[in-house]
Design goal:
Elements lengths: L17 H16 L2 H5 L1 H19 L6 H6 L7 H15 L11 H12 L30 H16 L6 H15 L6 H15 L10 H8 L1 H13 L2 H29 L1
Helix pairs in contact: 1-12, 3-5, 3-10, 3-12, 6-9, 7-8, 8-9, 8-11, 8-12, 10-11, 10-12, 11-12
Length: 269
């Protein structure tokens, strides 16, 4: 008889501080989802969430523009910064159509997301393809790049994790998906943008925030690039302490991202 694969994700929820952080985040998200005022303006909140999420994701990679310039469209001016912002917004628009695939065909989702964000940044033949060299952008200063064969192996392992049943909370699954892509940097350009949209996709696919009302990217931006990159570097060590640090920071970012939904609502009403 073939051995039954163990649920390797489930044990991560037992790491110090993780269960509590996940519970705080889930409670905040649930409060937003059950808020009648939010639901009555759902379409507008979702649209603003994508806009703010794209802005925050680009800003994390160093492409920060004035929010009012983003709303007016002036930020999308073809400059290097403007092109990163445009890429971050483009993938936000693409994400809803990929939610149903992320748990069934994660490799296809990664390829599609990268093809969208990397347009104009890499040769067309490299869009949506894992890198084959040790060249990868590093806007968060994570350090030496992982060898390409190992990065490819990590992506295959992530695909298996995402398609395998687990009792782990969806927030843990999302953090692992995000952290694995961000630290492996499997693409020559844009792995961070890909990793951050994965959080949205996993949380939507697993019913935590199915409509995309919250703004997890804003939570990461609020944490600060230094704290974000430090947690990712700790995650990359694979130690229980390092993994727990990342899982807690990620859950806290989701919690703060849910609070951002209320700020969006306040701007609307």
């Amino acid at each position: 008889m073939l051995p039954v694969p163990t649920d390797s994700l489930a044990a991560l929820a037992d790491l110090p501080g993780v269960a509590e952080a996940v519970e705080r985040a889930r409670s905040e998200v649930d409060a937003v989802l059950w808020d009648r005022e939010v639901r009555s303006h759902a379409a507008q909140v979702v649209a603003a969430s994508r806009l703010r999420g794209g802005w925050a994701s680009a800003a994390i990679d160093g492409a920060e523009v004035r929010p009012d310039a983003l709303v007016s469209g002036d930020a999308l001016d073809g400059s290097p910064v403007g092109r990163v912002v445009a890429a971050a917004l483009a993938v936000q628009s693409e994400a809803p159509g990929l939610v149903d695939l992320v748990d069934r065909a994660p490799a296809q989702v990664l390829s599609r997301v990268h093809a969208v964000v990397s347009a104009g940044f890499v040769p067309d033949e490299d869009r949506g393809r894992l890198r084959t060299s040790e060249e990868a952008d590093d806007p968060l200063h994570l350090g030496p790049v992982m060898p390409a064969p190992e990065a490819a192996r990590r992506m295959a392992a992530l695909g298996a994790l995402l398609t395998r049943p687990t009792t782990a909370p969806a927030l843990v699954v999302a953090a692992v998906a995000h952290g694995t892509v961000a630290t492996a940097r499997p693409f020559t350009w844009g792995s961070g943008l890909v990793a951050r949209i994965l959080t949205r996709l996993v949380l939507a696919a697993r019913g935590v925030d199915p409509d995309g009302l919250t703004v997890p990217e804003a939570g990461l931006f609020a944490a600060g690039r230094s704290a974000y990159s430090s947690a990712l570097r700790d995650y990359a060590t694979g130690t229980p302490e390092g993994v727990a640090h990342w899982l807690v920071l990620h859950a806290d970012a989701v919690r703060v991202g849910a609070q951002e939904s209320r700020r969006i609502l306040a701007d609307l009403v």
